[in-house]
Amino acid sequence: METEVTNRKSRRKITFIILISVISAFIIYYSLMSMKSPAQKLEEIKNEFETKTTDKSNINQRILKDSAYLKLLKEKAFLQSRIVLAETDSIYLSINLTDSTANIGIYGVVVHRAKISKMQISKILMKRNESAILSMLATPLTISLAFATIKKEPVMIQMAPKDTSEYKPDIMPDTTITEPVNYILETDKGVRIYIYQEENTKIDDKISQFKFDLNYRIKDTWSALKRVSIFKIPEYHPFIKIRLPRTDAKIIYRAIPKNGQIAVFR
Length: 266
What we know:
Number of helices: 7
Strand order of the largest sheet: 3-2-1-9-5-6-7-8-4
Number of strands: 9
CATH class: Mainly Beta
Number of domains: 1
CATH architecture: Beta Barrel
Oligomer: single chain
CATH superfamily: L,D-transpeptidase catalytic domain-like
Mean pLDDT: 81
Low-confidence stretches: 53-57
Structural class: alpha+beta
Largest sheet: 9 strands, mixed
């Protein structure tokens, strides 16, 4: 009897050790694959957008690293993107990371300007392969999906009165004034725009943002795990995270179309 109990405990211990080993091996494998994803994304951007040059002279190499030349390239890319947007009849968003503003425009005219109080940008977009990134930003980013804590088009259902005697004016308070505003815009080039409200002092605001980020991270992690399980490198998405006043953030989200376009100047 004692031998049987001992053998059972031994089997459980071996099973536990094997399980821990498998989980540890998968975590290490997942971490290594995730570390490769930024480099793979940069390589994809270079292959798709980098300008091909046949002249590899030292003079050209020095010009490509010159700060004044790069500044001109940045301005050119942003202007090219805005020209494309101005030719459309749709409202668009332009994000100027240099002067810290987010602007709504139409036909090339800015109709609403919001000040960015805080920002965080992927290193890929800021410090890696300038020519390829600028070539990518020379055309607008198109929104493919959006995730938000507020509705795109708020709807209020009211019962129509039978006659004028039953009519009552709408005295319902506008709850969206204090509703937390946080959203993520996924784009066709893989870049993600995170826009959070600037006001984050109330506990409800902090909880709302935490839940919103957590739900999105779970979705993103699940997608990465599925790719790793079939021996593929997880997709890396360069990001731009900005904070705006709640009112401005809400105006921008509801103003831009479902598949609207975004110009970025960095």
